[in-house]
Write a structure and sequence with these properties.
- The chain is mainly α.
- The chain is built from five helices and three strands.
- The chain is globular, with a radius of gyration of 21 Å.
Length: 186
């Protein structure tokens, strides 16, 4: 009898995931556009860890290219496409100096666009899964499994460039404060 409940439990989990997915995307958008305090050690750790993530990402795309055609090229193109977006993201970010420190607020339209890319790719994957269940294999380029590496590379390239840009802006702010005799920095 308990084994008969397993498919129902799996179906319930799938439905719960489908219901909570839009909530998660909205919450990701809200947190992505919120004003944040820039702490030097956090910005530095984030920048270096994202650089390591890019290396691991490209290595895993290379390993996956044995099973997923063109995974490495999709990943590299996505990473390269995300980098100029990261530069635009730093350029459009609002920076503020206050007695509490250095704060930044990411551009809401860029955050909305990146969240939309994630939502679109999830929707395409769901559509692809439904098409395969029906037996029709849609083989368009945007449904290709390698495009998942492209979207991952796009997001990673954006965040990698954005993290290094934030770190650079914070270091310039810290140098200006120290030059003016502003005291101890965090």
């Amino acid at each position: 009898m308990p084994l008969l409940l397993l498919p129902l439990a799996l179906l319930a989990l799938l439905l719960l995931w489908l219901l909570l997915l839009p909530v998660g995307l909205v919450m990701r958008y809200r947190s992505g556009r919120a004003r944040q305090r820039a702490l030097g050690w956090v910005l530095t750790a984030n920048a270096w860890l994202l650089l390591g993530s890019a290396v691991v990402f490209l290595a895993s795309a290379w390993a996956s290219s044995f099973w997923v055609p063109q995974a490495l090229s999709w990943a590299a193109l996505g990473l390269l496409a995300g980098m100029p977006m990261g530069v635009v993201g730093v350029w459009r970010t609002r920076f503020e100096t206050s007695p509490a420190g250095f704060h930044y607020t990411p551009d809401r339209w860029l955050v909305l666009m990146l969240t939309g890319v994630v939502a679109l790719r999830i929707g395409i994957a769901l559509w692809q899964g439904m098409a395969r269940l029906r037996g029709s294999g849609a083989a368009d380029w945007f449904v290709d499994a390698g495009s998942l590496f492209g979207v991952g590379g796009l997001l990673l390239g954006y965040h990698l460039t954005y993290a290094w840009g934030l770190r650079r802006r914070w270091r310039a702010w810290r140098a200006a404060v120290n030059a003016s005799g502003g005291g101890a920095m965090r």
